[in-house]
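Appendix B. Raw example, untouched.
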Amino acid sequence: MTPIPPRSTAPVLEGVGGAALPAPGAAAGSATAGIAPSALETLFARGRVRAMLSMLGPSFVAAIAYVDPGNFATNIQGGAKFGYLLLWVVLVANLMAMLIQYLSAKLGIVTDASLPELFRRRYPREASWAMWVQAEIMAMATDVAEFVGAALGLNLLFGVPMLPAGLMTGVIAFAILHLQSRGHRRFELAVSALLGIVFMGFLYEALKIGPSARESLDGLSPHLAGTSSLYLAVGIIGATVMPHVIYLHSALTNGRTPVRDDRERAKVLRYERVDVIVALGLAGLVNMAMLAVAAKLFHGTGHTEVSTLSEAHAGFAQLVGGGAALAFAVALLASGASSSSVGTYAGQLVMRGFVGFNIPLFLRRLLTMLPAILVLALGFGPTEVLVFSQVVLSFGIPLALIPLVLLTSRRSVMGVHVNRLPTTIAAGGLAALITALNVFLIYQQV
């Protein structure tokens, strides 16, 4: 491992053609006569629609983590066992995700630094190392879910045994990660395409099976039905609001669109809000469709015992047909392969940010694969492992969210883009709510 030198607190950005731009926060005005146009002005000179499309992307990379195999497990299990009961949890979790991911993206755009980097600069070294350790544990839990899910997708599609399927998943993830080394745009487009496959798969399922509109609306009324439904509710939140993408989003947006004053920065933030709403809205629709389809197909027909993804696949084939089963397996494979590559990339940025070290991406991929490969080799039930991993992840959410709220609410960090008081209260309330749910869950289980 080689130490990464600390980033300058006043970085010089490069505009179009290599022209130097002032650092974020520098005194600036808009481009005037005799001053070269900024990178943002040059971008918008090509047309507003083209500019908007070029600025979309970071949230789509983050969104793939919100429809990973852990979501498949918790949503299918929740719909089969409780019908439409937990649909409101999916909706609330997705709204939470929109706020959290926007704050992370805003932090990167305004400060030109990631959340882990800012934490390391502003808090004691011991705290940064502790945050890195817990973030690595969360990354391993994430990787278990993603590897197991993708391996199961290969198993369902082609009958590949789980252990070889897991190794094949590693190869696929490497291929996707390699695109990132050739430019962020190719990586974003590849991940967005895989997100589109997942969306189309569940759009097909929803149109084919036709969940009840009335019962779906009833499911949006907040209520639970005992400890087991609470366990799944916490799992759904853990599967939806992912700690590693809270860190990742700030890294994806910092320096992506160079700006030279707060006016331009505000413009980039407006387009980032569109990016978040579109990408996370798409992910939310997929999650709600998953649960509603399971509620109609399994709970509605008395198959409430369906608790594994293999059983769900068999149920699709038996109750709907081979096309529905194929769509489910393809969506699962696309979800696992893409989210695995995103998780590895996030882990690399987290290590670099919190402790200033960097290791080859290939080596990191091998290290984070080990727990998942071990789970597959020991033959643990894939769905049980997926649900448990999502509950573990929910414990990492406050540890990522609290520093995010603290930093984005400080004027010394954010300048004129500091959070408004209602935003800080809402985000702080989310951190408190998730922490309280986890504590209550531990109490109930013990």
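End of appendix B.
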